[in-house]
Request: fold
Amino acid sequence: MSDAIPLTLTAQQLDVVANALGQRPYIEAAPVLDEISKQVRAYNASLPPANGPTPTPADADNVPALP
Reply:
């Protein structure tokens, strides 16, 4: 049996948790923040790409300048 507890949080709630962990001693907060980061990266990787590919540095030369 796993001792993990699945949670569902909004981005704002996750920000509050991360900020609160920032107030704790590093030795306590670091492993928790690391695990949160891993899960957020996995979640973000599962999302469909947003509106096409991101321009590469070579493509940046072809982007029109803002007025």
The mean pLDDT is 82.
